[in-house]
Amino acid sequence: GDWDLVIVPHSSFKFISVSPETEERFLNQALEDANAALKEAEAESEGGRFKSLGVKAAEAMIASIQRRMDALRARSKDKLVTFEQMGIDDLTIDESHEFKNLGYSSNLEDVRGMGNKVGSSKAMDLYIKTRYLHESNGSIAFMTGTPISNSAAEMYTIMRYLAPDVLSEMGLDHFDAFRLQFVDATTAFEPTDSGSGLKAVTRLGRSWSNMRSLMDAYYSVADVVTN
Known about the structure:
This protein has helices at residues 10-13, 20-44, 53-75, 121-135, 152-162, 164-169, 175-182, 211-218; strands at residues 90-94, 139-143, 183-191, 198-208. It is of the alpha+beta class. The protein has a two-stranded parallel sheet with strand order 1-2. Strands 3-4 form a two-stranded antiparallel sheet. The two termini are 37 Å apart.
């Protein structure tokens, strides 16, 4: 039908799939990034007796992408109407903070404030659909009361969804390039979980730089409304 607006819950949205060809293309790009991250992590930990956290994280991301590709190949036999065939040209996502767990690669190890680098299938599904809409000149809007809790990775994730072209123009497609430009991983003493003492903790986000450039890029896609 010629609908102006169709409202679906998050739980149903994942059942509207993009075509296998589109999904495989984006998954292959993600797999290339993950394999590159694995090689860098292995080079940095060469000679170590045990696998570093960076190597384990990269391997976990590769395994996650491979599982999605395996599921895609099994699903590609089904003849279903795809996201593209439906003629969808806009996505407005309410409570969009529920999709912040988008996987990414980084060489940083044992650093707080990084979130789950492997990510969720729910977030990857939305990411592929937003990338398709960017390519087809569609539009995407996120609505949330908590766009960023306390993480540079969350700001990077929002930019990946809404403004991948801005990140690409700035040469910041990958998270490590983004955080080297804007945010430092610094070590400081913090109370232990039991509160009985202090321990040294390396955390991302205590120190920021080039804030004007970052906020210009962020507010090119963000609009803050207060009541």
